Amino acid sequence: MIFKAIGDGRPYPEHGLSTRDWAMIPPRQIRMDTLVTTKRELALDALLAEDSTFYGDLFPHAVQWHGELYLEDGLHRALRAALQQRNVIHVRVLDLDALMPAEPAGQG
What is the DSSP string of 28-59? Predict the structure, then answer.
């Protein structure tokens, strides 16, 4: 199995990060089998394109929310890495768990 789960949409709140904001987050190594995708479908032409990151970030983007890592951007890059027999990729991770801690039980 390549990913932990295949999701459909983003279960976490909107974070509002721009491309420039994402670029400030240093990439770190993440095992692909710990990622939950936020897309069910992919475009084969994008998967096979040699210049798919020409105008974008070289590193996929993930959001940590309630202990899960959601692959927000970079599904095609992650799948290309899997096709090359790699199970670890460098990902920029926004930790919403740290930025938006859960309220204690009974509060809210």
Answer: EEEEGGGEEES-S---HHHHH-TTTTSSS-SS
Q: Has residue 77 been placed in a domain?
A: yes
Mean pLDDT by 10 residues, the chain (108 residues): 91 94 96 94 68 69 97 89 93 94 57
For residue 53, give both structure tokens.
């990151």
> What pTM was computed for the model?
0.83
Give every CB contact of residue 102 below 8 A, 6+ residues apart in sequence: 66
Q: Residue 15: inside a domain, yes or no? A: no
Give the domain extent around 84: 1-8+24-40+58-93
Q: Give dist(CA 54, CA 96) in Å, integer.
A: 28
| Vertex 90: Cα angle to 67 and 71 (nearest 5) | 45
Establish if 30 belongs to a structural domain. yes
Number of domains in the chain: 1
Which residues does 91 contact at the CB level (< 8 Å), separation at least 6?
A: 27, 28, 29, 30, 35, 59, 60, 61, 62, 71, 74
